[in-house]
């Protein structure tokens, strides 16, 4: 007999987390547990308002699948039954975790991906004034890779301030759709001068067409513009990389397929995350080794992570143990 349960949790953020769309002080997550023959598989997701997701809506979507899951639905049938998004991600990860714990096989074996090893994650600097961002960057300047949140107006000064505060760190930036066609060229040139390696989602997703064939001196990475496999075709010729987040792809099952297709299309890959606990990050560690950039710093931004959690040594993340996931 298989049973499923759903719970919501709130995890305070250390300070606050600010991007172009606003500030939040806590990570609200939905946790799915699937229990069968004394074994429990878990998955965590973060409903995201940008994609018209709410906690109650995600719980409702999970509930709609309860009967099928309890009757034995597997992750491949799940992928056909639900759209991409947070709800499917939590179920997909719980099913993989359950299979691993029930069979004694590793998640890497189940997914047919390499065994995860330690990876280097980016560390995020929240959007703020140039002076405040410079101060935050200085405190993180020993970290080898920083991800800088930008917001449009004032970004030239922000980029310069951050670079001055961390002259040796590698930089990637995330505009979260805050740039416009009017300031795009100026801001991308400022990024090039600062040695930025990658720019995430400069324009709103519905303005992607202007990127088609547009020369740019820094590679562009699609985030809000790309979700699952079906969205890859639409970004062709506009972006050089994609950010694969499990809450967008609807789980690891789709994410593995998506990375394979992205490579065939010549795209670089980032494995990213929402702000969440180690239970959200652990499944993503199984595809982190397939990526060019890893941004799984969610637990580092929390006031406290769940236990057991992932082990961080500075910006290096150790692979998860089976007591956490997989």
CATH H-level superfamily of the largest domain: Enolase-like C-terminal domain
**Name of the CATH class of the largest domain:** Alpha Beta
Largest sheet: 8 strands, parallel
**Tertiary shape:** globular
Q: What class, by secondary structure content?
A: alpha/beta
CATH third-tier fold name of the largest domain: TIM Barrel
The run of helices and strands is EEEHHHHHEEHEHEHEEEHHEHEEE
| Tally of helical segments | 11
Mean pLDDT: 97
C-alpha Rg (nearest Å): 19 Å
N-C termini distance: 21 Å
Description of the structure:
The protein is α/β, with parallel strands linked by helices and 326 residues long. The protein has helices at 55-64, 66-70, 75-81, 86-103, 107-111, 130-139, 155-165, 184-193, 246-249, 252-264, 278-288; strands at 2-19, 22-36, 39-45, 119-120, 123-125, 145-149, 170-174, 198-200, 220-222, 241-244, 268-271, 293-294, 312-313, 316-317. β11, α11 and β12 (293-294) form a beta-alpha-beta unit. The chain has an eight-stranded parallel beta sheet with strand order 5-6-7-8-9-10-11-12. Strands 1-2-3 form a three-stranded antiparallel beta sheet. The protein contains eleven helices and 14 strands. The protein folds into two domains: 2-108, Enolase-like, N-terminal domain (Enolase-like, domain 1, 2-Layer Sandwich); 119-317, TIM Barrel (Alpha-Beta Barrel), CATH 3.20.20.120. The mean pLDDT is 97.
Record the SSE blueprint.
Elements: E1 2-19, E2 22-36, E3 39-45, H1 55-64, H2 66-70, H3 75-81, H4 86-103, H5 107-111, E4 119-120, E5 123-125, H6 130-139, E6 145-149, H7 155-165, E7 170-174, H8 184-193, E8 198-200, E9 220-222, E10 241-244, H9 246-249, H10 252-264, E11 268-271, H11 278-288, E12 293-294, E13 312-313, E14 316-317
Parallel strand pairs: 5-6, 6-7, 7-8, 8-9, 9-10, 10-11, 11-12
Antiparallel strand pairs: 1-2, 2-3, 4-14, 13-14
Helix pairs in contact: 1-4, 6-7, 7-8
């Amino acid at each position: 007999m298989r049973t499923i349960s759903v719970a919501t949790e709130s995890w305070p953020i250390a300070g606050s987390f600010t991007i172009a769309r606003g500030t939040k002080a806590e990570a609200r997550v939905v946790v799915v547990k699937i229990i069968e023959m004394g074994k429990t598989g878990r998955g965590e997701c973060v409903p995201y308002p940008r994609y018209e997701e709410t906690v109650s809506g995600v719980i409702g979507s999970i509930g709609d699948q309860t009967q099928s899951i309890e009757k034995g639905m597997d992750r491949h049938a799940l992928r056909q039954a639900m759209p991409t998004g947070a709800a499917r991600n939590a179920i997909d990860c719980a099913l993989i975790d359950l299979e691993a714990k029930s069979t004694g096989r590793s998640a890497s074996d189940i997914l047919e991906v390499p065994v995860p090893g330690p990876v280097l994650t980016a560390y995020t600097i929240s959007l703020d004034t140039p002076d405040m961002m410079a101060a935050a960057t200085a405190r993180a300047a020993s970290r080898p890779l920083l991800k800088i949140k930008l917001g449009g107006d004032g970004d030239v000064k922000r980029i310069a301030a951050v670079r001055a505060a961390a002259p040796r760190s590698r930089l990637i930036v995330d505009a979260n759709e805050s740039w416009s066609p009017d300031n795009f060229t100026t801001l991308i040139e400022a990024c090039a001068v600062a040695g930025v390696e990658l720019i995430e989602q400069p324009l709103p997703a519905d303005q992607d067409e202007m990127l088609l064939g547009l020369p740019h001196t820094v590679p562009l990475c699609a985030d809000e513009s790309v979700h699952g496999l079906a969205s890859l075709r639409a970004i062709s010729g506009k972006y050089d990389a994609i950010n694969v987040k499990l809450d967008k792809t609807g789980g690891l099952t789709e994410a593995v397929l998506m990375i394979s297709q992205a490579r065939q299309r010549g795209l670089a890959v980032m494995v990213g995350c929402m702000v969440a606990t180690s239970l959200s990050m652990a499944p993503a560690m199984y595809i982190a080794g397939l990526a060019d950039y890893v941004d799984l710093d969610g637990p580092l931004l929390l006031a406290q992570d769940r236990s057991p959690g992932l082990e961080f040594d500075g910006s290096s993340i150790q692979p998860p143990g089976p007591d956490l996931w997989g």
